[in-house]
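=== Structure Prediction Worksheet ===
Name of assembly: unnamed complex
Input type: mixed (protein and possibly other molecules)
Chain count: two
Listed entries:
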Amino acid sequence: MHTTTEPLLRVSGLSARIGDLPLVQEVGFEVHRGRTLAVVGESGSGKSITAAAVMGILPPQITAEGSVFFDGTELLGEPAKRRRARGGAEIGYVFQEPMSALHPLLRIGTQMIRPLRHHLGLGRREARDQALELLEQVGLGRERKVLDAYVHELSGGMRQRVMIAMAISCRPRLLLADEPTTALDPTVQQQILGLLVRLREQLDLALVLISHDLGLVARHSDEVLVMYDGRVVEQGPTAQVVDRPEHPYTRALIDAAPRLGRRPDRLPTIDGAVLEQTRAMAGGAR
Amino acid sequence: MTNYLLKRLGALLPTVAVPMVLLFVMLRLAPGDPAAAIAGDSATTEEIAEVRGRLGLDASLWDQFLGWLGRVVRLDFGDSLFAELRVSGLVFEHAQVTVQLTVLALTVALLIGPFLGIAAGTRRHGLLDRVLVFGSSIGIAVPSFWLAVLLIAVFGVVWQVFPVAGYVPFSEDPVLFLHHLALPAISLGLVEAATLFRYSRAGVLDSLHQPFVTTARSMGLPERMVIRKYVFRAAVVPMVTVVGLTTGSLMGGAVVTESVFSVPGLGQLLLTAVQRRDYPVIEGCIFFIAVVYVLLNLLIDLLYSLLDPRIRY
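=== Predicted Assembly ===
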């Protein structure tokens, strides 16, 4: 069993702030290889900041503290160069908006090939072959046309598949997917989630799936972490959290999901909202 | 694409025709009389009238216009009023010098501006950035002819490493040619470099935190590569416009700078022609400048589509 071994990623006491304004406070979780952790919460709850802190791609004005323990090494406080070199090769990141996350002026092939050459030391030819291989792996087929295309020439689903192909291209062990399906049509959403889970199995990845949609990711995850206002409010095995939510916010989150055959008059809301941040911003920050 | 090109080239005609007609009218309405200038200071009214008749300037404005139009549509601008020289030859000869000066000035600007722009943009608020931003403010504020005088004073008079004025054709002696054009090219180029610096710095700052740059970082590419291949690639597109417009204004003849250095370029030709009311030469110069401007704009747009695959015609 995986769970009995050491987790690949163990985050503990992770906090992030911008100036004096806390964005994420005391977040902790573990992910094992071959398993999926869903991080759920509304916009502004700190999910993406958490993922960016693990990846080490926080905007310069945001500082992180705590512990990000990955495969036996503490990542926070590691020299920037070492940290950077882990990107792609050890940790892959799938962004929410493939349209803006892929360079608009470079061919898909160019963007895929550079990391392959850099991390795996492949030649131009080999890297191109490998890129084709990867496209096939994410369900786009061995299409040279895709490699020669620019991002605006692809459909939303294709873009996200390319993004995923790139994220896994240098054989990372951990994949962070930040709202990977939010920009997509509902039918495509399911396909992309299915793809991520399939890749997790094939490549024995640890997968962190970030979403605001608990209903969507529930089926695809082993564990759930619910975030609210920068804090973890509930975490545990997915089935348990969904069936017997303990925190009122989780309950509200489940109730807020539209269900077939039920027409709510008003979506349930929760007091407090993301008020703390808003108040702090109005007061302290510029 | 071919359609687009044809359309754009078709638009060239009215774009050039309108300023030409305006120019014709304005020149003849403006005070000053070429006939008086040719006849000389001591000429009598009769003598001036005689010259005017010889030049065909005593006809009605309408008749003059029809005659002018008939020649101009055949691209015949006639002779200079003051010398037995074809306008086309004069313009061609002087434009050559201006083109050479423009190329040199652009080289100076392109070697300095974008390079420093990246250096400053990636080290925002650092010492280098602050020094360069301050320096570029001066560069933009200072007129190039003032810089020209300063350069002459320092390199021409005090150190005497460059000639203070003059021009030697490239065909005669390439080294002397460069030697003479160095100071004018630098004084024009530095000012343009300051503008290019501003644009490239802004472009770098703008794209430094674009999502696609974050992606490149998340893929573990070294920062140097990220800057050179991802950030700069995005920042370079808007710079094309600046370079294009710069080229346009340089091609119009850097009138004052050319005068300061006595470089026989288009600016000098135009200046002398205006002073003497040499109508055909003014018209020839303006025609050339207008055509160059339109073609440059077309070139910029074509370059854009080459640099940005999202733009297709």
